[in-house]
Amino acid sequence: MHNIQPNLNKTYLKAASAKGVYIYDEHGKAYLDGSSGAVTCSLGHSHEKLLPFIKKQLDKLQFVYRSQFASEEAEQLATKLYELSPDRSLTHSFFVNSGTEAIETAMKIAIQYWQEKGKPEKTHFITRKKSYHGITMGALSLSGHALRRQRFEGMLEKYPSLSADLENDSLEDQVAEFEKTIDTIGASKIAAFVAEPMVGAAGTALAPVNEYYACFKAVCDRHDILFIADEVMTGLGRTGTWFGMEHWGTQADIVAVGKSLGAGYAPIAATLMTDKVLAPIKKGSGIIMSGHTYSGHPLSCATALKVLDIVEEDDLLDNVNKKGVYIKSALYDLQKKYPVIQIVRGKGLMMGFELDPAIKGIQAKLIERCYQNGLLIYPAVGGKEGTDENGMLISPPFTINRSEADELLGKLEQSLKECS
Q1: Which of 3.30.70.270, 3.40.640.10, 3.40.50.2300, 3.20.20.70 is the CATH number of 54-313?
Q2: How confident is the model at residue 84, as a pLDDT?
Q3: Do the beta carbons of residue 97 and residue 256 sit within 8 Å?
Q4: Tell me: the pLDDT tens digits for 84-95?
Q5: How far apart are the first and last CA of the chain?
């Protein structure tokens, strides 16, 4: 009888329409989408170039099952992602429906890679305690997000083992912890190291130092361990580059993308990989043991390709970088005025700030005040252990203009005043 919403004891307003950076409820009230939903709607809503294209595609081809046909739409999208990848290194794409599925597929491909290489015992994964990779059992096993793990802990693998502080511990200590963890588990049992370039929901746009990924990738290579980059949130423009890992100049063996791939217009994500990863599987069994009914869905693939074309044609990465600098600078100014903001960080239009965790319920209070003031922002966790409910992500659509950015900041400041 009723659609189940996240909070069973809350009455939600109904969204009636959306345009640009605004969503309108059933009463006509406008909400500035300051988080692009769940850091997803990179082109905003009802984009004038995208809607006619989707309608045209509906008249052409909607669905084919992946084991019966290939599609031009999926092939063209795979080519586009290859062309956008650093040094054109990500030569192969496996399309799924969500970021969580992309991560699960990455796990399966990593394990299958080692099976085909004659090392079936390599099934373990190493991740950070400050991490979130998805809500299904495999992806949640990779995740250190305590608040999302706790109900299912007995069913989950204990993969999150790296507890070093990305911001405050020395790189030398972080690498030493990684090496020690590998020695403890045994390199012969480890399939891959999995990490978000910037930690989103579990770290409020937390990023490591410049040399971090180069050092960790060197350790992976030395111990015969794959590196999987979870770019579901950071990938395809959100941080001002096509791939978040470009900020660190390091290439992963397998990459998961989602969110900005479909930009909210189609449920699509992808697991991308290098020739190195696919070659032994192709030579061996010749089959990727993964997939879903809607994998490679032609309508979703065509939509995603058009999304990427629009980002290129409209030079939106430039806007991401310029508006990111502008909004981040304004957040620092707000931090000076409102001591409740303790940390500001981020790249491009993936920005976050942490509130004073000593103020009980401050996150929920600020979200509610923002909502009442017509601003949507996204909650995250913060603190040294990644368990404080005090983080906020500011991630508006790539299309946001100066006046809309000022409106976002004005609504945020008004909400901060009301929380003081």
Answers
A1: 3.40.640.10
A2: 98
A3: no
A4: 999 999 999 999
A5: 41
| CB-based contacts of 114, cutoff 8 Å, min separation 6 | 120, 122, 123, 191
Distance CA 398, CA 42 (A): 5
In the block, tokens 């044609």 appear at 313
Calpha distance 415→419 (Å, rounded): 6
CA 156, 162, 166 angle in degrees (round to 5)? Answer: 130
Contacts of 236 (CB under 8 A, 6+ apart): 42, 84, 242, 243, 257, 259, 260, 261, 308, 311
Locate the domains of the chain by residue range. Answer: 15-47+315-419, 54-313
Mean pLDDT of 208-237: 98
Residue 244 CA to residue 195 CA, distance in Å, equals: 11
398 closest CA partner among 299, 339, 322, 288: 322
Residue 103 Rama label (left phi>0; alpha psi -120 to 50; beta):
alpha
**Do the bridges between strand 226-231 and strand 22-25 make them parallel or antiparallel, or are there none, so unpaired?**
unpaired
Whether the Cβ atoms of residue 44 and residue 397 lie closer than 8 Å to each other: yes
Tell me how far apart the alpha carbons of residues 359 and 177 are, in angstroms, rounded to a whole number.
Answer: 33
Alpha carbon separation from 328 to 190, 203, 333, 356, 378 (Å, rounded): 39, 17, 9, 19, 16
The DSSP element (H or E) to which 218 belongs, if any, is: helix 212-222
Q: How many residues does the chain have?
A: 420
Residue 91: predicted pLDDT: 98
The residues, any chain, with a CB within 8 Å of residue 193's CB and separated by 6 or more, are 125, 126, 127, 178, 216, 220, 225, 226, 227, 228
Q: Which amino acid is at 265?
A: Y
For domain 15-47+315-419, which CATH number applies: 3.10.150.10, 3.40.50.720, 3.90.1150.10, 1.10.10.10? 3.90.1150.10
Express each pLDDT in 18-62 by its tens digit.
999 999 999 999 999 999 999 999 999 999 999 999 999 999 989
